[in-house]
């Protein structure tokens, strides 16, 4: 392709502002936020009623607000792990195809902007909406905790909480790009939403099953170890973990585990010899936890970039005529 | 002639093995109006999209105000206003907000944009509905809003793809006025339309598209000469029980005579008005009207496509 002149970011601001305003004012966003809010409040409320008794003894009581679960209610992070992708897909599944269906695409692309600005503006506006919603929820949970628990969060808790927020945003960003890619590939918004949701189900529900099945098939459990009450072989565990990390939901779960359970020391199999001299159950400093999840977090970002590039290429090649 | 705003040479577009456009040459000057005609699927919209840089040509070169739409698309799009054949707007915004968004994308300074938007809305007669939601606007109003967008942008070249579709008669006459206004401001206008009389009324030149090629190009009298050769056309209104077509067809110099809706149309090699009148009266008919007609674009178009396959 011939080299083109002019910045790809001309018009980006205009697109961003319009899309953000659209998202924040849309009934879709309103519904999603209330959904998250209500389930979140339910989860946090039960957590608080359980936690009140341990406030004094637990140094990370604020983090428990996020992670505590009591049957049959899930924990707040379990709710988020479920609803963040849903929200992201809800924000992105009709990003591009709606412009075609409303017949605004040719009018917009006849203005002096590159398609880059349109795609990036839409992505970042979706991400900003997600960020606003997550920050609001986060503040709500912390505020709720402050009032009911009556102790302020420690510095470590705040930084871990913010770390969690950032990881949740990365995770949402990945599903947002997946949804935007679908909106480029499929002209019908319903198809696009369905495919995006299908991919999400595949990654969160089906993939772990497939992985377990595959690992079992490749490293069949040894009859003797089974008789002796042993677990699966190391090879099987490692294969299973490697494969399962293809799914962004695994990356997210692992990151959240390390961030919100400060005692987490490793995200893979650990040998007894490696634990020699360690104080079991002692929390890791925040920096060490960050190091632990670094690969997971960069994995999520890298995935986002790769999917975005695919969406970009597909969009560039598209005919403007609907 | 004055400065060239648009020039295209050897423009072609292939969709797989099908040539949507093949070897189209176009030139447009400041303040000139060129009409694009042709059957459905003749390649008008495809040509327009290539001129705007919205579709990459398979071959050929384009120059819009000194810029190539592929290499410098932003420069071209700053200079060109486009009204698509099916124009849509954001339903959750008002008419004015829709134009505001386009103005921001076009990089117009805020104050200039506000003034331009109000002026453009007034010019297309939408100032009263400007702050109502898009949902309350009719199809024709949307079409006019699309035109307002082109006016607001203040461009050197306005490309209008079927701007008259869906307009009521009064609105389409107003549209012609607006287009003449653009011409007066020195804007070149490229417009495609199926309303031949409207095209004839406003265009300086017309280009007739057929199967991806321009088969005829020039002023309307030019085309008439080329399509009809040196033919004279007369129309007569007769009253009386006569078989006018066969009566006139027998006269020397007459090539063809047809009757439709009480009006007889005669094609002849020379001015046969005297003979026609005499023959009609001799046959006992009352002659109400006898005129020599300049071939309309409509007649040219139909004559050209008669015998050829009407559609591509
Ligand atoms: N994306 C595409 N893929 C394949 N063929 C296409 C595509 N777009 C247009 N065509 C073909 O290109 C030809 C020209 O279409 P075009 O839209 O330019 O016609 P037109 O002159 O604008 O017709 P109309 O008067 O109906 O608007 C048609 O035969 C059409 O089928
Ligand atoms: Mg067309």
Provide keyphrases for this structure.
heterodimer; A: 322 residues; mainly alpha; 0% strand; globular; B: 312 residues; alpha/beta; Rossmann fold; Alpha-Beta Plaits; 2 domains; six-stranded mixed β-sheet; four-stranded antiparallel β-sheet; 11 helices; binds adenosine-5'-triphosphate; binds magnesium ion
Structure description:
The complex is a heterodimer of chains A (322) and B (312). By secondary structure, chain A is an all-alpha fold. Chain A has one domain. Chain A contains 13 helices and no strands. Chain A has helices spanning 12-25, 27-51, 61-67, 76-92, 97-101, 105-109, 115-149, 155-185, 189-218, 223-227, 234-244, 248-260, 286-316. In chain A, helix 2 (27-51) crosses helix 3 and helix 9 packs antiparallel against helix 11 (234-244). Chain A is globular, with a radius of gyration of 22 Å. Chain A starts with 11 loop residues before the first helix and ends in a 6-residue tail after the last helix. The relative contact order of chain A is 0.12. With 312 residues, chain B is an alpha/beta fold. Chain B folds into two domains: 4-218, P-loop containing nucleotide triphosphate hydrolases (Rossmann fold, 3-Layer(aba) Sandwich), CATH 3.40.50; 229-311, Alpha-Beta Plaits (2-Layer Sandwich), CATH 3.30.70. The chains are: A mainly alpha (322), B alpha/beta (312). Chain A binds chain B through residues 2-6, 10-11, 13-15, 17-18, 22, 25, 102-104, 106-114, 319-322, and chain B through 45, 49, 52, 54-55, 70-75, 77-78, 80-82, 84, 86-92, 101-102, 104-107, 146, 149. The complex binds adenosine-5'-triphosphate (ATP) and magnesium ion. Magnesium ion is lined by residues 44-45, 85, 161 of chain B.
């Amino acid at each position: 392709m011939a080299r083109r002149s002019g910045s790809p970011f001309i018009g980006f601001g205009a697109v961003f502002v319009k899309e953000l305003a659209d998202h924040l004012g849309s009934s879709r966003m309103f519904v999603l936020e209330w959904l998250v809010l209500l389930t979140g409040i339910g989860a946090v409320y039960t957590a608080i009623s359980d936690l009140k008794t341990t406030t004094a003894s637990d140094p990370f009581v604020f983090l428990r607000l996020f992670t505590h679960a009591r049957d049959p209610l899930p924990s707040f992070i379990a709710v988020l792990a479920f609803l963040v992708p849903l929200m992201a897909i809800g924000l992105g599944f009709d990003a591009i195809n709606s412009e075609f269906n409303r017949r605004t695409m040719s009018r917009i692309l006849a203005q002096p902007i590159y398609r880059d600005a349109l795609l990036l503006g839409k992505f970042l506006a979706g991400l900003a909406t997600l960020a606003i919603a997550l920050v609001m929820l986060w503040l709500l949970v912390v505020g709720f905790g402050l009032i009911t628990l009556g102790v302020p969060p420690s510095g470590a808790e705040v930084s871990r909480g913010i770390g969690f927020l950032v990881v949740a945003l990365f995770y949402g960003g990945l599903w947002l790009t997946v949804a935007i890619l679908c909106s480029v590939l499929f002209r019908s918004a319903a198809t696009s939403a369905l495919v995006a949701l299908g991919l999400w189900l595949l990654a969160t529900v089906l993939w772990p099953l497939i992985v377990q099945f595959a690992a079992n098939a490749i490293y069949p459990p040894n009859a003797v170890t089974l008789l002796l009450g042993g677990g699966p072989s190391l090879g099987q565990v490692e294969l299973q973990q490697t494969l399962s990390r293809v799914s962004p939901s695994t990356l997210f779960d692992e990151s959240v585990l390390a961030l919100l359970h400060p005692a987490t020391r490793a995200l893979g199999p650990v040998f007894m010899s490696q634990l020699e001299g360690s104080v079991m159950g002692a929390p890791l400093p925040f920096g060490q936890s960050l190091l632990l999840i670094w690969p997971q977090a960069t994995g999520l970002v890298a995935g986002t970039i790769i999917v975005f590039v695919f969406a970009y290429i597909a969009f560039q090649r598209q005919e403007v005529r609907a | 002639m004055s400065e060239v705003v648009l020039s295209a040479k050897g423009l072609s577009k292939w969709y797989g093995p099908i040539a949507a456009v093949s070897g189209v040459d176009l030139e447009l000057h400041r303040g000139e109006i060129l009409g694009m005609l042709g059957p459905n699927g003749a390649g008008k919209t495809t040509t327009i999209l290539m001129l705007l840089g919205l579709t990459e040509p398979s071959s050929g070169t384009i120059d819009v105000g000194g810029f190539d739409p592929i290499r410098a698309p932003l420069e071209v799009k700053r200079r060109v206003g486009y009204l698509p054949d099916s124009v849509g707007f954001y339903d959750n915004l008002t008419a004015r907000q829709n134009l505001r968004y386009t103005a921001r994308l076009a990089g117009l300074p805020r104050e200039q944009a506000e003034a331009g938007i109000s002026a453009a809305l007034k010019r297309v007669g939408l100032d009263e509905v400007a702050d109502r939601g898009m949902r309350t606007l009719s199809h024709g109003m949307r079409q006019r809003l699309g035109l307002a967008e082109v006016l607001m942008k203040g461009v050197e070249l306005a490309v209008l793809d079927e701007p008259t579709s869906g307009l009521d008669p009064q609105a389409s006459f107003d549209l012609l006025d607006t287009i003449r206004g653009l011409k007066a401001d020195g804007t070149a206008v490229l417009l495609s339309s199926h309303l031949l009389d409207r095209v004839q009324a406003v265009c300086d030149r017309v280009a007739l598209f057929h199967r991806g090629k321009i088969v005829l190009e020039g002023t309307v009298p030019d085309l008439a000469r080329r399509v009809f050769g040196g033919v004279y056309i007369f129309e007569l209104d007769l009253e009386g029980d006569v078989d006018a077509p066969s009566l006139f067809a027998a006269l020397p110099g007459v090539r063809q005579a047809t009757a439709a809706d009480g009006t007889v149309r005669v094609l002849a090699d020379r001015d046969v008005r005297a003979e026609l009148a005499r023959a009609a009266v001799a046959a006992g008919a009352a002659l109400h009207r006898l005129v020599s007609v300049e071939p309309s674009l409509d007649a040219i178009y139909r004559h050209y496509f008669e015998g050829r396959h009407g559609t591509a």
